Every structure is written in structure tokens, then in C-alpha cells.
Amino acid sequence: MKRIFQKIESNKVLFKNFTSLSILQVANYIFPLVTLPYLVRVLGAEKYGLVNFAAAFAAYFTIITDYGFNLSATQEISVNRENSNRVSEIFSSVFTIKMMLFVLSSVIFFIIVLVFPIFKENLTLFIVTFLSVLGTALFPLWFYQGIERMKYILIISVSVRLITTILIFVLIKSENDFIKFAGLNTVTQFVIGIIGLQFALNKFGLKYRFPNKTLIIQQLKNGWNLFLSTISINLYTTSNVFILGLFAPANVVGYYAAADKIRMAFQGILSPMSQSVFPYVNKILSESYDRFISFNKKLFKIALIVGAIISIMLFLFAEPIVNIILGKDYQPSILVLRIIAWLPLIIFLSNVLGIQTMLPMNKQKNFSIILFFAAMISLALLFILVPIYFAIGTAITALATEIFVTLAFFIFVKRNKIFAI
Predict the structure, then answer these.
(1) How many Cβ atoms sit within 10 Å of the Cβ of residue 340?
(2) What is the pLDDT of residues 230-259, one digit of tens each?
(3) Is 0.90 topped by the overall pTM?
């Protein structure tokens, strides 16, 4: 009887977290989607593309400061959540490392932007955008995920982003305001980071203690394979916009970035699944392997059905969607959107096979190897296709790479007989 009640309570927590993250994800994509038609028209394709190019560059440094902790620290806190001293220890170690990595990132960033002419031309934009990395580093997303208290993330993030959305319509009036727009994004991330950090310390009684060398090394080791995986993932996601910006005019970057924003908004429907389910599957795996397998089979079916519906809708209605949201000046975005329309389906499936299945079973090394090869394939295709086909080449590369990742995860799961799909 006790086990039944525990299972009911566990399912309630999962449902609450999924609901909170679903609302959060909707907000994270709805707010930008609300401002997207306005921004692409006011800033124009060139300045909109330039802002996204700067954001793609800053994202590389976010990878460094995140260091895979959104998975490794989440997993560790989830398992030790009943031990407050251990949770404080993990929190202190991870936060300290992230601040050290931000300092390292800052040094690398300023060396690059001061040496290469492509960054000097818009130095202010790149500096303003880079500062958002600190805001992301401050926000302890990994902590909230680990203790499965997603409603606090929801309240903090939605409140701040609502204010930012209003300010965009008030402050951004012409294409000359593109740096102001980047600044709004940076301030938003910084405010969310500060509030999220302060709330975690006060609400949950966390005690920060500067960690010793042993604890720091332990956390670096725990996150290493996932850090490599994160680098690989971002090499074939973030690099799409960045490498396109190296070869194509800023307006072409704008066409691709705008289409990708639409794709991500639709894809956001199931994105909360990853964040809310990951700590849950780790927990049920520690209790019952059979329950873990049964749950992930159901998850795979949901991802297949919902992903297929979203991708088919995006493909079929790409033209009216682009015309309504982006306007007649963004006709090149239609074909781009049709190509990347299949990403939601493919990514949903790879998420279940990789993050929700392989990682809880400690297959981090295999996970990292697959993503490393995906990154190499992506970079090769980008440098071959982008100089010739620009945005279309970028879209084809994104699709081909995600197909490879999903097929590789599928083959690994089947060969190791983890569960029959």
C-alpha cells in the first residue's frame, strides 16, 4: 500500500513539473513569437540577422559555463535531494565552477573580438550580447530541476519575460535600435539569473561554502562526458547560424533565423518533456528497471505521435505561416521552414532514446561519441553546403545531422536490447 501511495505522489510531482514547464516553454516561445512579426519588420532582415549572429557567438560561451551541469548536477541533486548537506555541497561546487568558467570565457571572448575584424565592426553588439552569458550562469536551473520544483522557474521567468515583451514594443522603433534589443535580452537573462539564485538560497535553505579542490575536481569529472556531449550538440545547432553568418550576408542569416524561430516555437510544445521527465526517469530507474523501461516506451509513442503532427503541419502550412508571422519580405524563409519542419519529430525521438534512456543508464560515453560524430558530420556539411547554398544548405545540414543522431541512438538501444520499440 505504501508503494502505491509513493507512486501516486511521484506521478503528481511529475505532472506538476510537466505542467509548469509546459507553461514556461509556451511563454518562452510565445513571447518571442508575439514580438517576432514586429521585430523582423522594424529591424529588417539584415539587423535581425546580425543580432542572431551575435547571439549564436555568445552561445558558445554559454556552453562553457553550463559544462553539462544541467544534466549531471540535476541527476546528482535528484538522487541526493533528501540530504540537505549534500545538496548544499553540490550547489556550492557547481556554482563556484560556473563562475570560474565565466571568467575564463570572458578572457577568451575579448581576445577573439579584439583580434578578428568581423567582430570589431559591431563590437558593442557583441559585448552586450556576451553579458547574457553571466545571467545564464547565475540561474541554477539544474538545482530546480533536481529537486523537481519547476513552478518557481515558471513564476520567475514568465514574470520577467512579460515585462521584456512589453518593453520591446515601447523601446524598439527602428533598425537602429538593434543594440537596444540585444541589451533587453541580456538584462532579461541577468534579472532572471539573480532572482532565481537568490530565491534558491533563501527558499530552500542552501548554505554556500567555498568548495575544496576535491569537490571541484569531482564535479568536473561528473560533468565531463556531458560537457563534451553539450559541445557536440551546440556545434551542430548553434554553429548553423554562426557559420552561415561567416559566409552569407546578414539578411540571409535573418531569413534562416526567423524560420528557425518559428520551428522552435512549434517544437516547444514537447520540450518540457525533457526537463521534467529527466529527474523522474532517474528516480524510477533507481527503484525499478521494469518501470523505467515501461515508462520510456510510452514516452517514445507520445513523441512519435505528437512530433509527427507538428512536423506535418509545419511542412504543409509553411507558406501561410511565414506570410502571416514574418511578412512578404521573408519569402526565402518558406523553403527553409519546409526543410527544417521535420526537426521536431526527429528531435523528440532522439530525446527519448538519448537523454531519457541512455543517460540514466550511465551510457554517457556512448552518448558523447554519437554526438561527437554528429558534430563532425555537421561541420563538414556546413563548410561544403553553406558557401554555395547559404540558408538552404544550413537547413539541409541541420536536418541531415539530426537524422543521423536519432538513427545512431536507435541502433544503440536496439543492439543493447534496452527495450524493444
Answers:
(1) 27
(2) 788 777 788 899 999 999 999 999 999 999
(3) no
